Hypoxanthine phosphoribosyltransferase
Amino acid sequence: MHQDILEVLVSESQIKEITEKLGKQLTHDYAGKNALFVGLLNGCVPFMSELVLKIDTHIEIQFMAVSSYHGGIKSSGDVKIKYDLNSPVQDRDVVIVEDIVDTGATLKTVTELLKYRGAKSVKVVTLLDKPSGRKVDFIPDYIGVTIPKKFVVGYGLDYNEYYRNLPYIGVLKPEVYTK
């Protein structure tokens, strides 16, 4: 699968540095708040797994499965909730953990939903931010690194469910997804 990668955008060591930095910031910002960290499946798993180990304060972890990508390389714009939270968010500080913010549509929808459900606050931490892909007005609160408008895979990000297990973020060769 490594031969399908055109270039590495974010290396394994850079990801570790990013999670350290974000973990320290989140520890500071959420100390004593018993925040609820909500991972958006499936892409968040590697990032969230490493990130939460760098947070040195009490947090609760839960997951949601939401999607606006239904195969292919472009967002459909149609956000579907496939798996919801097990606990109420009423009066909780919620931090959504995401692998990438691209169009912003999914995160805007989920953020608004959690606020509607009574969350005290809703913030977003993302490993990757791709502002050139935005279709809605949305800015993540915590950003690991900003990337250009390229189709990336690895470290949770996929193409048709493959490449999630790469230990880095790479640009997928166009011939792989234009066959």
